Amino acid sequence: MKLLIFAAITFAAAAQRTPAPAFYEDTNNIPVSPEVHADRRVTFRLFAPEASEVLLMGSPGILEFTKKPLPLTKGEKGIWSLTIGPLPSGFYTYGYAIDKGLRMPDPSNPNLELRRWGATSSFIVPGAEKAVMEARPVPHGTVHVNFYDSANLNTQRMVYVYTPPGYETGRQKYPVLYLLHGNGQIEASWTWTGRANVILDNLLADGKIKPMVVVMPFGHVQREIKTAANAPAPAIGADMAAIEKELMTAVKPMVEAKYRVLTDRNHRAIGGLSMGAAQSLTIGLHNIDHFAYIAAFSGAANRAEWEKADPEMLNRKLKVLWLGCGTEDFAYPGVKGMAELFSKRNVKHVWNESGAGHSWPNWQVYLSKYAQLLFRD
Amino acid sequence: MKLLIFAAITFAAAAQRTPAPAFYEDTNNIPVSPEVHADRRVTFRLFAPEASEVLLMGSPGILEFTKKPLPLTKGEKGIWSLTIGPLPSGFYTYGYAIDKGLRMPDPSNPNLELRRWGATSSFIVPGAEKAVMEARPVPHGTVHVNFYDSANLNTQRMVYVYTPPGYETGRQKYPVLYLLHGNGQIEASWTWTGRANVILDNLLADGKIKPMVVVMPFGHVQREIKTAANAPAPAIGADMAAIEKELMTAVKPMVEAKYRVLTDRNHRAIGGLSMGAAQSLTIGLHNIDHFAYIAAFSGAANRAEWEKADPEMLNRKLKVLWLGCGTEDFAYPGVKGMAELFSKRNVKHVWNESGAGHSWPNWQVYLSKYAQLLFRD
Lengths: 377, 377
Description:
The structure is a homodimer.
Chain A: H1 2-17, H2 22-25, E1 35-36, E2 42-47, E3 54-58, E4 70-71, E5 73-74, E6 79-84, E7 90-98, E8 102-104, E9 112-113, E10 120-125, E11 142-150, E12 155-163, E13 176-180, H3 189-193, H4 196-205, E14 213-217, H5 240-258, E15 268-273, H6 275-286, E16 293-297, H7 303-308, H8 311-317, E17 320-326, H9 332-344, E18 350-354, H10 360-373
Parallel strand pairs in A: 13-14, 13-15, 15-16, 16-17, 17-18
Antiparallel strand pairs in A: 1-2, 2-6, 3-4, 3-7, 5-6, 7-8, 7-10, 9-10, 11-12, 12-14
């Protein structure tokens, strides 16, 4: 009762003090969005009484799943809506484009895709069976947010680390996968958005992977996409050399001092998505004495050095060299080209071609496939 | 070089495939925002070429620091801007209100205030000396994201846990503070937004607190603010009984099994902000045999039970009973009233009145003050 009175006082007082748009004062104005219906249709809603155009964008910038911007229709009380589908069961990210330029996540949806700029939103359409990224009541690992002061980059940075179930109370040492994110993403992306921890929990519960520690560092030098007005955004990949140095001289030593991990190359893997794929193919080859496993999801780079590398050496040292890309992905020609290079030079590798494009559903499946090949001997 | 080509191909291909608003394809359209100038003025910018009104809202719903919505002015290339200040050094949260209803975080700013609904943005104005919530190159603790399946609530939930520097490689057992968030916030809020881990790292480095583990559970029953169209949002505090049960029967046992923590009441504290203050005053009193320290930041509740409690018992059992509120806070009368009740009944307590209102800068300072009183004997 006291609490209800407290709440009433709260909003009465706030309303009195602040001549703000009504929306902020009354959560009842917030529509439910997205609403995933039992038949796998999905309704999106947005309160935007004065907007002249609201577009649904599947993965803004990429448009996965909507293919093109889809207009919402203005209805009663300033609420725009759109129902699409039935959608295939799976994981989706989306945002809104409003009035030809403004971009925003769905304010009703607490599930955000975190990014360096322009957070978007996510949702899951459940299927008849649980997909690999859907939470199940199995033993859960822990995601650790580590903070450290980088001497190389003269700033504080974060590294996310996944430890498997039982890590806290056990004594075992584990192999390590360094898992790298894409351009615009952050160190939280592989877990917060990509649900890597859920995927690994599920695979471990099903006996499909070895327990492992997964290290997810930040793959850009600076947090903001730009820091000075009118400065051009740096090119993708501009950070490569600095990130390689940071991973090998700061992140890896910190992880090996702080966590119970195995430190021989046969128990160390690297892999990443998009920009992180490019980084994995570069850092992995430069440091092949440290990594017995390399994977590139939906990205490629460093072809010239791979062309020069001795195939016999690569086949001897790399237990798994894994490439995956969707046929609709803009990165497909580049990744496919790397696979063809490896085939031509008789470099053992796995080539995983899938449908769809440059999107989390592919990366979630690629991680689940790559993880199953790791640390088998 | 390959990477630059890859990047060029990426955006050329994306542009070809997607008839999306230009903004999504060219990060050069993203203005720098907020830009904190050396003189502590702050410039906010937003690309919104078709908007008719863009308002800066300090802490949307509360309006801390802006006091009222402040209009941005439309300039060249569809970019709206506003420069305010000089602002006092400190921590700020804000969002934009666009065209009378639409709310959004600042898409340029990677620092989000995460919430159940309507994420907003944050920034820091540095001062001459580092404030308690500003990162310094001191030893850093770790923030752990724990996932568990709640039998009480039949869903998977998260608990954030801060462990002090050295936890991973030591053997010591630590006292525990249960730290509860406010309405609309989430288990990530105290660290991601409130920077509790930074505060505790700094205080520990300065020898001002005992090292402690801090447990930050989720304080609502469900993640979404509403799950059915046209359903009213539940009242603040509706979750109280369920959250008390969850904390005592699920969170606390899990923490005590998984972490090296002391398990006697003298080494266990509770405290929270706003709704979390109400929960702390309720759960703390109901379970006084489990908590020797109780704190309420900017919130109050459960007055009737506190009025009935034996002052002698309270004074004997509670090592610290801590209340804090800002004089501009809508919760001020309620919290001040609790302090007056305690004074009248000769219940020992700390009453911390500050300026300003219902906002993170107060909660950050309250945490730093409360933490310094914990586990001293």
